[in-house]
Amino acid sequence: MSIRDLSVDELVARAVESDRRAVGRLLSIVERGGEAADHLAECLQQVPTDGHVIGITGSPGAGKSTMGAHLVAAFTAAGRTPAVLAVDPSSPLTGGAILGDRVRMAAVDTTAFIRSVATRGHAGGLALAIPGGARLLAAAGFDPVIIETVGVGQVEVDITAAADTTVVVVAPGMGDAVQANKAGLLEVADIFVVNKADLPGANDARRDLELMLELSHVTGQEDSSHRPPIVMVNSLEGDGIAAVHEAVDAHHVHLIESGNWPPAGAPVFATSSAAAPNSRSTYSSRRNSAMTPLSPSSMQSSPATSHLRRPPASCGSLAGHERHLSSLRRP
Hints:
By secondary structure, the chain is of the alpha/beta class. It has a domain at 50-269: P-loop containing nucleotide triphosphate hydrolases (Rossmann fold), CATH 3.40.50.300. It has helices at residues 8-15, 20-32, 35-44, 64-77, 130-139, 159-162, 177-180, 202-214, 216-219, 241-257, 296-301; strands spanning 53-58, 83-88, 113-118, 145-148, 165-170, 191-194, 230-232.
């Protein structure tokens, strides 16, 4: 029987057993939305997940894909099975997308699962299907799940609601200390990576970030339990990647010790192909315990979430597949 002939229930049963073709098919269903995606969301509620979701974001040309490829290689070398959702911009003129981020990851070990996703007009740095796709990959046993955003501007911070650990990549020439202290993207980082550290101005970028962190108490954004580390990286040579790996794992430990792990709530699948509002309220937060996961009543009453709806209450039995991810057979 062709993979296209399987029902959503059958595909989910295969996906939690690490069938990559089933995972790919389900990701396509998530991207298309509709009733099948609603049903899939309900099925995934039966599958416990504990995958660590890592967001990599930054301005265009900062080197996110190259750095991310090295990070994925570090995870596979450590015996883990990462998955990547690489978001590429869609053309405002043709609607097409090159989906070129995965080209920079061509040399990554085949243990990793890599999927390119087009924004399809969605603002905020992500595609509408990303929260549901991340949930699916975690349910399939991939850990960590890495989300790479499109090149973003100062206020495109949707990644913070979809990821547990947010890595912000900057490059020399990002601006002066005044630029570093502006509100927006730099405020949401759990880890800073100064990429292209071999270029002039890299130490200046680090100094400006250090100054911003020193002044964070003025804006009330200072977290006494966690100060975002600043890691110097040369992605072309792979220098500093081990330090990024260590910083990501250290932040994961911090989430556990601070009681913010495992994350509360799971993303709700989007069923409309239209662009969603650029609002953090459109996702259930994975890293901010102060945000309440979406409920049916809140979605009915909130204009910001009118494009979302809960999946139907029924779902085919997944008997024999409801188990903790630590017992799942990894790909």
